[in-house]
């Protein structure tokens, strides 16, 4: 599962350096802004918790969530050739791989932009919890399609394998594109102080703007997008803190990313139960629940960082990480959703009303 097709190019294709047993010593720094490890002078290094880094996660998360919801809506139509979420997963992983390959130029220009694009935008554009819920819905045939049990199994396996293949391939291709582009970005002009301050101010204003969009725009938009925007940044911030705090604990297993993906998957299952009760909550509560699913859980969980971590492992460790994440997520959905479905207290389809 390594993207380093040629060992001689390993230092240029990916910024992650591997040690002798295949573990990636800098895996914990994937979500962090560029540092001295990328050859940056101290004046251009930002602390992971610096205000500009946290501020730029705001527009990244909002734009990522909007792009995901927009792509899903655009790709949902009669006779669609592939499940809608695949487009967002593939695009997010492609951009993630590209940004990783040009991490040093990002740092020379303005380090917080790297985190805004990777952790913020790509992490919000892709979603691990949505992927796992799609798979589980295939197992139980939530859409009540005309097919047998074996075809339900094939549909779930297809979504599992195709999403993983698209994600890993997109990360590797993005790294190749970044490697080809990097020679032209070796000496970018650093961003001046005034534009840097302006970007941070605009970022904070983006967070303030999501509240009037929820309350002032028509209620029909709440379950489609505006409710999700309320929770996009908190979701990204939770994932970012988990990554900073837990990923360095074990260089051979990304504990922070795993915890974020499992927590988000468990919450998605819980919110899905609340959306599908026989006596659904009020329209506003239904919109908030959908916003928590699309915004908080969608941005809390990520396929882009997950795919980069898998690519950075050797084949056996990568396979173990993938299989462990997939199995635990499906078990969480089974434990939370299964009893609700089979006790007949909860419908397999959403019963919430938006009006």
TrEMBL record:
Family note: Belongs to the fluoride channel Fluc/FEX (TC 1.A.43) family.
Membrane-crossing residue ranges in chain numbering: 49-70, 82-102, 114-136, 197-215, 227-246, 252-274, 295-316, 322-342
Protein name, as recorded: CrcB-like protein
Coiled coil segments of this chain: none
Taxonomy of the source species: Eukaryota, Fungi, Dikarya, Basidiomycota, Agaricomycotina
General function of this protein: Fluoride channel required for the rapid expulsion of cytoplasmic fluoride.
Localization, UniProt: Cell membrane
Superkingdom classification of source: Eukaryota
Region entry Disordered, spans: 1-41
UniProt main location, coarse: membrane
Keywords, sorted A to Z: Cell membrane, Membrane, Transmembrane, Transmembrane helix
Recorded catalytic activity of this chain's protein: fluoride(in) = fluoride(out)
Composition skew (Polar residues), residue ranges: 1-17
Membrane topology, record value: Multi-pass membrane protein
KW Membrane (keyword) present: yes
């Amino acid at each position: 599962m390594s993207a380093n097709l040629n060992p001689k190019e390993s230092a240029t294709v990916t910024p992650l350096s591997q040690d002798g047993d295949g573990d990636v010593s800098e895996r914990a720094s994937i979500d962090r802004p560029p540092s001295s490890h990328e050859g940056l002078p101290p004046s251009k290094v930002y602390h992971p918790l610096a205000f500009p880094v946290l501020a730029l996660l705001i527009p990244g998360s909002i734009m990522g969530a909007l792009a995901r919801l927009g792509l899903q809506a655009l790709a949902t139509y009669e006779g669609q050739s592939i499940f809608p979420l695949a487009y967002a997963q593939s695009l997010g992983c492609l951009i993630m791989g590209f940004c990783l390959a040009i991490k040093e130029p990002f740092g020379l220009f303005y380090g917080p932009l790297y985190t805004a694009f990777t952790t913020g935008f790509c992490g919000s554009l892709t979603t691990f919890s949505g992927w796992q819920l799609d798979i589980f819905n295939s197992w139980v045939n939530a859409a009540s399609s005309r097919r047998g049990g074996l075809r339900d199994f094939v549909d779930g396996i297809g979504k599992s394998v195709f999403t993983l293949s698209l994600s890993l391939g997109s990360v590797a291709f993005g790294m190749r594109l970044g490697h080809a582009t990097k020679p032209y970005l070796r000496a970018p002009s650093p961003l001046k102080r005034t534009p840097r301050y302006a970007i941070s101010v605009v970022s904070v204003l983006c967070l303030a703007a999501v509240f009037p969009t929820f309350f002032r725009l028509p209620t029909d938009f709440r379950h489609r997008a505006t409710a999700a925007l309320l929770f996009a940044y908190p979701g990204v911030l939770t994932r970012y803190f988990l990554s900073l705090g837990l990923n360095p604990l074990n260089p051979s297993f990304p504990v922070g990313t795993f915890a974020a993906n499992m927590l988000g998957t468990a919450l998605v299952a819980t919110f899905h139960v609340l959306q599908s009760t026989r006596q659904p909550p009020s329209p506003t509560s239904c919109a908030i629940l959908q916003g928590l699913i699309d915004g908080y859980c969608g941005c809390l969980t990520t396929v882009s960082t997950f795919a980069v971590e898998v690519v950075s492992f050797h084949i056996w460790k990568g396979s173990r990480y993938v299989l462990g994440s997939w199995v635990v997520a499906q078990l969480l959905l089974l434990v939370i959703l299964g009893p609700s479905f089979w006790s007949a207290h909860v419908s397999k389809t959403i019963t919430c009303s938006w009006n």
